[in-house]
């Protein structure tokens, strides 16, 4: 039975974003990156501006961090930190190519997070691998964030953390394989997780949406929900249909140029949770 749209309630959010002024693919640190293929930076900026305007039209606040020419991946703001309850945790990247982003994001979060900012000691890649759901945090490992970092996140942010192991290198961050909609509903690609991870997701979220590989490869799961509207890749049509069935309002946009760097809509969006 299709849920009525009135069942879902949007909540105003606060996001941090970084314009892809210097976006490029200069190296390969995930399977999506190919430095031999030219990047259309103007197109990436136009798609990003569409996303920022959409967030504002939906009633959300968009904060900005200045892009730096030496950091082509800085547009992926979700990897820049994790903010829960006004408290921010910085990041420590696995690959040295992105380590220059750590300090700029730490400084920016220090101005945005009312509860202070904390520097991590272990490898964690922010909201790329740590997704708050209700009173808990789902944490990814396997390719980027260290499993030991999960305990550090739990201690600093004072939330229980549930570990999930990723097994498909195409879905190297948790936010490429799992999407959070509200306090008790997620969507995920089962094949992206090991047996224990699939079992844990099923136990925690019995009504979870299982997404097809085709929609996941289109970065459909790298989406942003405000509780009612879900902004997602336009190509993830099957996923969008299921969201409508569940009472959400999916909004598909083109964001494929940023996918050349291995990121999508959620990667470009860091939520500042007060």
UniProtKB/TrEMBL annotation:
Gene3D superfamilies: L-arginine/glycine Amidinotransferase, Chain A. GO terms for biological process: L-arginine deiminase pathway. Pfam families: DDAH_eukar. The keyword Acetylation does not apply. GO terms for molecular function: arginine deiminase activity. Keywords: Hydrolase. The keyword Disulfide bond does not apply. SUPFAM superfamilies: Pentein. NCBIfam families: DiMArgaseDdahMtb. This is N-dimethylarginine dimethylaminohydrolase. It comes from Candidatus Frankia alpina. The lineage of its organism: Bacteria, Bacillati, Actinomycetota, Actinomycetes, Frankiales.
